[in-house]
Amino acid sequence: MDKITVIGSGLIGSSWAIAFANAGYRVHIYDRDESSFANSERYIRQELASLTSNADEVIQRITYTALLAEALEDAGYVQESIFETLEAKQDIFSAMDALVGEDVILASSSSSIPCSAFSEALGHRAQCLIAHPVNPPHLIPLVEMVPAPWTNASVTEKATLLMNDIGQTPVVVNKEIEGFILNRLQGALLNEAWWLYQEGYASVEVIDKCVRDGLSHRWSFMGPFQTISHNAPGGLVDYAERFRGFNFEIAKSRANPTPWDLDAAKNAAAEVEAIESKMGLDDAVTWRNDMLRSFKQWKSDSSNS
Amino acid sequence: MDKITVIGSGLIGSSWAIAFANAGYRVHIYDRDESSFANSERYIRQELASLTSNADEVIQRITYTALLAEALEDAGYVQESIFETLEAKQDIFSAMDALVGEDVILASSSSSIPCSAFSEALGHRAQCLIAHPVNPPHLIPLVEMVPAPWTNASVTEKATLLMNDIGQTPVVVNKEIEGFILNRLQGALLNEAWWLYQEGYASVEVIDKCVRDGLSHRWSFMGPFQTISHNAPGGLVDYAERFRGFNFEIAKSRANPTPWDLDAAKNAAAEVEAIESKMGLDDAVTWRNDMLRSFKQWKSDSSNS
């Protein structure tokens, strides 16, 4: 499996192309809109320059096409990364289904729509699964592998091995659910954050600092379960006995949820802009990617020490 | 305000003593149980050895007493860090109220009980507030400052300045709520994590990796609001418009919560133990504190670069 096809040349598709090409794979990027290729190539060049001293060599492995059949020819693994609506996923997977053979794996970067929602009617449905990355995948290792009920077990296994091979950290989710694991965890925290902000308990900056300068210090190397097992003398069971009452109160207090208020979103957006301009940064995405690269290096150094 | 009193010589109290003494303050630790002093001193010596080359000098600033009146004499700031039950907080705050003058600040490390629940009837209630740390405070900077409705504004201000002075990152919460901000955010994520685990969607290791190797990469330097503002082309408002439907579905799916199942806690505890022993570490707390120290150093280096 030395040829990878990336469907969609946006930020996620381009980031995937970097991850695959930097690990030695040939990458064919498909987009029906040829005018997007220049932006994609610019982003890939810029990011590769910070990742490797062989940027010129790596970029030779990446080619573009606006022809789906050409993109899929000889591909062993396809990473679909287009706009996230059910209809868009159904259309592209039907189109691919008509063009591919038995040996290719068709993975989707879908962040919340389960694979069964767009693969059920396909002839090649046993070759389909979700490989959901965290944005941007060339800088954040986790990938959620979520098979549909009809996905062949060997497809999930091979796709997981490929993710390991390119240096990602794949995790296999046992059964489908909207949002999978990562975005449900983030969503639960966001829903509480949004409510606390809307109700005036704290500013965006205070809420963000509680995560950035508080919770993240433990979560950067321990997950939530391992963290709480350190927060009661008797470990996780002791923690559960002490704090499940408190956490049940939190859950009950959110039993009548309302959607996020869009006026609150406007105010919150202004507060985020104030935080970002306080840093004096022209380009917040460049800063973010620099920080992600530095953090990834810290994790790599500290886990080897 | 050069003398600090720490009430309670457990892990949180001892960690606070390290933070204050290492910043140059004299610290008087009170505990009614003198037999706990040896453990506290051992922990403080061990941690100071990793924090400073002046450990012998710093530890000279810390003294112990089992007499509350002696502990409070000349104190400018009190950091109460005893067992967390409402009755225990009421008892110790009543006892302190009878002994102190007008100038001392009485702060509680309470992680969820609001200050008004145990300070309403006190003569010195205007001097009371919450200063909730993240465990352990000498290695994690965030402190939530939560005044009661009757807390004097200058008390909140002085306590916040003191936290800045010792190198913590204080945030002021606008109004009281059980669990304040940090533990409500953690609790919302934990409730979802617990449900996903109990229902068999993923293992403890998979859930922990989703945070450790996924969400934490962004949250280590951006909070949740700043993070999502980077995850839609049009920023935070665009993100809200695209994803509030999905997040509302998550919220609605948890509208009939049940308490954490204690049998699930036993299984989860076994999975955490397997993760920790896989690391081959004898002492998980030592490892955790080493990682926290390293992470704090990374944050300090990367924010100065």
UniProtKB/TrEMBL annotation, chains A, B:
Domain 3-hydroxyacyl-CoA dehydrogenase NAD binding: 3-175
Molecular function terms from GO: (3S)-3-hydroxyacyl-CoA dehydrogenase (NAD+) activity
Enzyme category, top tier: oxidoreductase
Organism domain of life: Bacteria
Keywords tagged on the record: Oxidoreductase
InterPro entries in alphabetical order: 3-OHacyl-CoA_DH_CS, 3-OHacyl-CoA_DH_NAD-bd, 3HC_DH_C, 6-PGluconate_DH-like_C_sf, 6PGD_dom2, NAD(P)-bd_dom_sf
EC annotation from Swiss-Prot or TrEMBL: 1.1.1.35
Stretches assigned to the 3-hydroxyacyl-CoA dehydrogenase C-terminal domain: 179-244
Pfam family, one: 3HCDH
The family this protein is said to belong to: Belongs to the 3-hydroxyacyl-CoA dehydrogenase family.
PANTHER family: 3-HYDROXYACYL-COA DEHYDROGENASE FAMILY PROTEIN (PTHR48075), LAMBDA-CRYSTALLIN HOMOLOG (PTHR48075:SF1)
Matches recorded under NCBIfam families: PRK06129.1 (NF004783)
Protein's recorded name: 3-hydroxyacyl-CoA dehydrogenase
